[in-house]
């Protein structure tokens, strides 16, 4: 398995622009998480999906952030409009809720976002 | 709210020395605890996962222990190598899906 795949790896954009980050979880994993990592706040959970359904989005900073999971193999995190304080590394992670390897969280390589 | 603390924040040791990394958490009602490694500019790699019913897990040179009653976990890395240089994070999972991460310990192994 290729692991959790995220794109783009790096994104530099100007304030006010729309940003879309993409994630392909590991096949067979039914839980998907979006995290944000900054030096000041460490790792923060933004949103959690189980079987493609958003279960907890309480970590989404504000209405500018939205996430979708239209099917088991794809998820997006969108920021519109973007602001400089959104600059961070955004990680997607997936896990299996049952069976062998259950609950072991596998992270993607991350998308480093810089908003100028 | 679960608070996870990792001390020290940074550690530098000569090659060959054993590493001891500490993680403490405030709420002992956990489902499992996971140790991760993060290399600069990279994602997190899972090292070991300890279920709440377990006392320790081992993988190669790595051994992680869990003492729920005292709210502590320790990651031991035997015979450290320069390739072990990275940031190590522990994450505690309560009964639901959320992980509470520590801030990490940055390890440097000097050749």
Q: How is the main sheet of chain B built?
A: 6 strands, mixed
End-to-end Cα distance of chain B = 41 Å
Q: What is the molecular shape of chain B?
A: globular
Give the helix tally of chain B: 0
**End-to-end CA span of chain A:** 36 Å
Structural class of chain A: mainly beta
Question: What fraction, in percent, of the residue positions of chain B are helical?
Answer: under 10%
Order of helices and strands of chain B: EEEEEEEEEEE
Query: What is the approximate shape of chain A?
Result: globular
Please report the total strand number of chain A as a whole number.
11
Fold blueprint:
The complex is a heterodimer of chains A (116) and B (111).
Chain A: E1 5-7, E2 10-13, E3 19-24, E4 31-38, E5 42-50, E6 53-56, E7 65-71, E8 74-79, E9 88-95, E10 106-107, E11 111-115
Parallel strand pairs in A: 2-11
Antiparallel strand pairs in A: 1-3, 3-8, 4-5, 4-9, 5-6, 7-8, 9-10, 9-11
Chain B: E1 4-7, E2 10-14, E3 19-25, E4 32-38, E5 44-51, E6 56-59, E7 62-67, E8 72-77, E9 86-93, E10 100-101, E11 105-110
Walk me through what this model shows.
The complex is a heterodimer of chains A (116) and B (111). Chain A has strands at 5-7, 10-13, 19-24, 31-38, 42-50, 53-56, 65-71, 74-79, 88-95, 106-107, 111-115. In chain A, the strands form two sheets. In chain A, strands 2, 4, 5, 6, 9, 10 and 11 form a seven-stranded mixed sheet that branches. Chain A has a four-stranded antiparallel sheet with strand order 1-3-8-7, with no helix packed on it. Chain A is mainly β. Chain A starts with a strand and ends with a strand. In chain B, 0% of the residues lie in helices and 57% in strands. The termini of chain B are far apart. The model of chain B has no long low-confidence stretch (mean pLDDT 93). In chain B, strands 2, 4, 5, 9, 10 and 11 form a six-stranded mixed sheet that branches. A five-stranded antiparallel sheet of chain B has the order 1-3-8-7-6, with no helix packed on it. The chains are: A mainly beta (116), B mainly beta (111). The interface between A and B is medium-sized, with 21 and 20 residues.
């Amino acid at each position: 398995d290729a692991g959790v795949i995220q794109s783009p790896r790096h994104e530099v954009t100007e304030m006010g622009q729309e940003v879309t980050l993409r994630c392909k979880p590991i096949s067979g994993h039914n839980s998907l998480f979006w995290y944000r990592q900054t030096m000041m706040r460490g790792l923060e959970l933004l949103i959690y999906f189980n079987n493609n359904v958003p279960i907890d989005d309480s970590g989404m900073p504000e209405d500018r952030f939205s996430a979708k999971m239209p099917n088991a193999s794809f998820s997006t995190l969108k920021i519109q409009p973007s602001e400089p304080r959104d600059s961070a590394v955004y990680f997607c992670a997936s896990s299996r809720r049952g069976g062998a390897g259950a609950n072991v969280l596998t992270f993607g390589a991350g998308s480093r976002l810089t908003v100028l | 709210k679960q608070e996870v603390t990792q001390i020290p924040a940074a550690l530098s040791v000569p090659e060959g020395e054993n590493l001891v990394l500490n993680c403490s958490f405030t709420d002992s009602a956990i489902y499992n605890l996971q140790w991760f490694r993060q290399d600069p500019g990279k994602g997190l790699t899972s090292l070991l996962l300890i279920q709440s019913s377990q006392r320790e897990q081992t993988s190669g040179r790595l051994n992680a222990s869990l003492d729920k009653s005292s709210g502590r976990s320790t990651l031991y890395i035997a015979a450290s190598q320069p390739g072990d240089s990275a940031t190590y994070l522990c994450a505690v999972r309560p009964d639901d899906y959320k992980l509470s991460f520590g801030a990490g310990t940055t390890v440097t192994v000097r050749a």
